[in-house]
Amino acid sequence: MERISGVWVFAEQEDGHLHDVGLELLSKGRRLANQLAAPLAAVLIGHQVRNLVPTLYSYGADDVFLADDERLQHCLTLPYAKVLIQLVKLHEPRVMLFGATSIGRDLAPRVASNTRSGMTADCTDLQISDVTQRGQLYKNLLLQIRPAFGGNIIATIISPNSKTQMATVREGVMKMEKADNGRQGQVIDLDVDLSEEDFAVELLERYKEKPRVNLKAADIVVSGGYGVGKKENFHLIEELARVLGGEIGASRAAVDAGFISRDHQVGQTGTTVRPKLYIACGISGAIQHRAGMSESKKIIAINKNPNAPIFDIAHYGIVGDVAEVIPRLIEVYKQRSR
Amino acid sequence: MPYNSVVCVKQVPDTSNISGQVMKPDGTVNRSKLPTIFNPDDLAALELALQVKDTYGGKVTVITMGPPPAAEVLRQSLYMGADDVVLISDRRFAAADTLATGYALSMAVRKIGDVDLVFCGRQAIDGDTAQVGPQLAEKLGIPQVTYTEKIEKVEDGWLYAKRKIDGGFERVRAKLPVLVTVFGDAAVPRPFNAKLIMEKKRAKSQFELERMSEDNPFYYFYNDLHNLEQRGLLISTWTVEDIKAEEEKCGLKGSPTQVYKVENVVLASAERKRYEPTKADLEKLIDELMTDHIFG
Fold first, then answer.
1. How far is A156 from chain B (nearest CA, A)?
2. Which of A83, A248, A296, B65 could form an S-S bond across to B88 if both were Cys, CB 3.0 to 4.6 Å?
């Protein structure tokens, strides 16, 4: 059997729908594969999902490994991991990328552990580069880049001796390129070999609600941080978002403080946004937060502390108390937009 | 029917609480100056394990891999009601990535033996990787239930649990033995028990006793070691040999990932304008954004 060992992307699907993050990773993976002069492959696991294969080609996949089996209809860690582990051991891809979703973050470390692959979670950038480490030259390593430790540093992680270098990336971090519907590829059907012990976990019930928050698609995001002060003050953020027709965001500190639910969190461990306008209210601007919003077209920062790092990336800075500035801003906007 | 649990915990720097004093002049964080805490998700994991014990009986053993000061989170575990604690500490475990950590923990869990449930926090606040739990499960060859929010029951060799997924939840059942990773919101950790504090506050690891004998020349180390051991207050410390680990799979040597470089963040924005929080200035700002067609 011919080995296909370039860049691989786990193409997550649920109920027959591809998750955006897989397509974003194919877009990024295409560029990494070109740099390596290697093929780009997608791994698709599920039941009756063959119809998704052309989409994966159109986002850059040369090859699609397809494991289609009734028992793989819902994502369960053990059988999905088994399929991936067998495949990785056989082909030894240089790079394997997973979306940092609840599925990817459950599955990928298990696969990495079994195949002894170095793995980095929540990367905010991926690059290919030669690296000299302790006097030894490594060709074409995957640089796994992520903010680390309290947010003051950006760490570049490498796995120089791993056959496969693995990473997870949050949804929205990599840009999805336009689909090229004319692209063709080849599908490789996998024999699925599962036993009873792979079903030691059974799904009894699954409940999914329609996402209430759609930060990724919003043109305007108004975010509140710990500096909003208290939960009661957070209605100011909501009010400003409503008036401007935007979505409500939050920093991790605000979420941890219980000001608002976690699905509003912007940043490395939340959602990455690229709106036309981002208004950061009472957010100091730790790197994890900036990682999720710094590519916004315009950034307004409102903060009491004139030295807050958020001002360094903001196009417009307003030094003042959120509780005073926001009502005034709403008033002025209403007058001007009449 | 009683169930035996092992809970894996970590002492972490309190990254949520970075103040001016821990910043170096170059703007980076001085790790050694940060206060340390019991990793929040791990506290919830311990609480769930104790609840299983309260309901069904069994033994709760808490383990941590870390430097000698990590004994503090083990003492706190005793104050909450853990039956036994173990410090996994050896220079050769240092600089372990998640894979090497999962391996070392798996060898410790094997040494404990007769385990029905392994509990981990979902992730630690210093790394946020959420990788150690699944990797430990893989090394033990047992199933995993990640992002657990609630344990419904343990019955006839199955664990019934509710887990958080993106935008919803799942209810699953898993065959024992199983590893569970726990969301910090899953349970409010019980407060320290006053009686247990009195009973267990003298619990010490051998490292800590050695330290005391260094500080005080009149301190008779072996006397106290023997004394604590007899009263069940000696915190066991396990080395690479104790858990029969292969040295090449531990610490830096056993870690496929390496930190290649660390950079301080350089911030830059193309244009920067400061506005006063006055009505006149805010009008200028809004007008400018309207000219740029940012709204509508």
1. 5
2. B65
Q: How many CB atoms lie within 10 A of CB A274?
A: 17
Angstrom distance (rounded) from CA B150 to CA B160: 9
Q: Which of A105, A208, A331 to mutate to test the interface with B (most CBs of B within 10 A)?
A: A105
- Beta carbons of B132 and B102 less than 8 angstroms apart: yes
**Min Cα separation A184/chain B (Å):** 32
Instruction: Report how far residue A162's alpha carbon sits from residue B256's, in angstroms, rounded to the nearest whole number.
Output: 6
Query: B256: which 2 tokens?
Result: 């496929």
A153 interaction partners in chain B (CB closer than 8 Å): 28-29, 262-265
Region of A302 please: left (phi>0), alpha (psi -120 to 50) or beta: beta
User: B257-293 burial by CB neighbour count: b if 16+ within 10 A, else e?
Assistant: bbebeeeebeeeeeeeeebebeeebbbbbbeebeeee
Residue of A nearest to B163 (CA): A206
Residue A83 forms contact with B (CB below 8 Å) = no
Whole-angstrom Cα distance, residue A129 to residue B175? 44
Angle at the Cα of A269 (from A266 to A273), degrees rounded to 5?
35
Q: What is the ipTM of this complex?
A: 0.89
Tokens 């664990």, residue located = B159
Partners of B119 in the beta sheet? Answer: B7, B180
Rounded CA gap, B182 and B185, in Å?
Answer: 8
Among chain A residues, the shortest Cα distance to B249 is held by: A116
Pairing of strands A220-224, A165-169: unpaired
Contacts of A176 (CB under 8 A, 6+ apart): A20, A23, A24, A27, A59
Put simply, the answer to whether B294 touches A298 (Cβ < 8 Å) is yes
Residue B101 Cα distances to A144, A337, B37, B211, angstroms: 20, 57, 19, 26
Alpha helices in chain A (DSSP H): 20-36, 53-58, 77-91, 104-115, 234-244, 252-256, 287-290, 310-313, 322-336
pLDDT of residue B194: 97
Question: C-alpha distances in angstroms, A75 versus A206, B104, B131?
Answer: 11, 29, 18
Dist CA B209 CA B212 (whole Å): 5
Angle at A251 (CA atoms; ends B26, A210), nearest 5 degrees: 150
Tokens for A123? 């990367």
Neighbour-count burial of A232, counting CB atoms closer than 10 A to its CB (0-12 exposed, 13-18 middle, 19+ buried): exposed
Residue of A nearest to B138 (CA): A110
Which position has the token pair 């309207």?
A: B290
